[in-house]
Amino acid sequence: MRLNFARSAALIAIVAASAAATQVKAEDVEVLHWWTAGGEAAALNVLKENLQEQGIGWEDMPVAGGGGEQAMTVLRARVTAGNPPAAVQMLGFDITDWAAEGALSNLNDIAAEENWDEVVPEALQKFSKYDGNWVAAPVNVHSTNWVWANKSILDELGIEQPQTWDELIAALDKVKASGKVAIAHGGQPWQDATIFDAVVMATGGPEFYQASMIDLDPEALGSDTMKEVFDRMTVLRGYVDDNFSGRDWNLASAMVINDEAAFQFMGDWAKGEFLKAGLTPDEDFLCFRFPGTQDQVTFNSDQFAFFNQGGEPTAEQVALAKAIMSPEFQSAFNVVKGSVPARTDVSDEAFDACGKKGMKDLAAAASSGNLFGSMAHGHANPASVKNAMYDVITAQFNGEYDSETATQELVDAVSIAQ
Ligand code: BGC
């Protein structure tokens, strides 16, 4: 906790300085985002170029740090200083929290003109709208319950794609015995939580995920099933390398890309890194759902929210929202980013095998009641609850709590955070 405060204070100082130094021209649109890894930056370029073609300048405000925690701290500082950026990449409940503060522009006119109600799935509209008004434009749908695997390591060791927890553990054992790293992981709270999302789903099933991660039912949070989830996290902890602490997610992806590690459990932004490295799905790497979650999708959606600059949205904000929502852009961007379109009417033609599977899985999960907001990525509960869960998950993953203590800590932390 203390560390978090220190980091926040440092960030606020940096932002205050950079905010003062930044002179944004009227026709530029300043965009705060955390897309700084190779695949992310490549996808962002698709958006930048789209705007440049319309004669709108791009004032970049990148804040490195996967999952966006640092970006949200910087945003808070900018708003407090009375200088919010025009457009901000945001996730789930962060959007509704800012909308509740009255900070976001109303996008109803452009949404009506372009028929967003018809093409954006309900699950996303829950976050793009506040009080019935459009306040954000969704750029994609990511999902967090993916495994990224190095195909040549698996082939060499005779490992089949694991379908169950036991098969997964058998596969991890084989990799460990070969001297390679079994799980490429970066020990940062949001990455630990990303794995936790998948383990909760795999261990307890969709009803348990709903009860514990979304409804915050104290019985589910404090159950034997949750204890088993923590036990499984401890098992997985035994397969990461010694240098995992603090490693950025894209460096963990690089370990799989460079034949150092067999598996990474990560959202499909990881695919952006594999593609950027020139690799091809099914030939060089495999993408499949975390064993035991084959029918489920835990999703998050990057959306752009537009901070009120005093009145109606500016012409540049509207142009950015329009660009984001165009079907052509949604295809071009998501092909590079690893995510899938936030519109239901975009063809999967341009997408690779993982993208096609992602689109199919999403549609199937949505229609069978198997689509759930990702806790780790702000789509299950507001940041206060999410961060309370992060603290327990990370402490347990690092051996601070046994599974029984962690289960009780989770119940307590969530109850205090609500
Ligand atoms: C975002 C992705 C991003 C990832 C890692 C997630 O929360 O939704 O767009 O690539 O964090 O930075």
Automatic annotation (TrEMBL):
One term under GO cellular component: periplasmic space
The UniProt record lists the keyword Protein biosynthesis: no
Compartments reported by the entry: Periplasm
This protein's record includes keyword Zinc-finger: no
Pfam families per UniProt: SBP_bac_1 (PF01547)
InterPro entries from the UniProt entry: Bact_solute-bd_prot1, SBP
Predominant location category: periplasm
Family: Belongs to the bacterial solute-binding protein 1 family.
Protein's UniProt name: Probable sugar-binding periplasmic protein
Protein's organism: Martelella endophytica
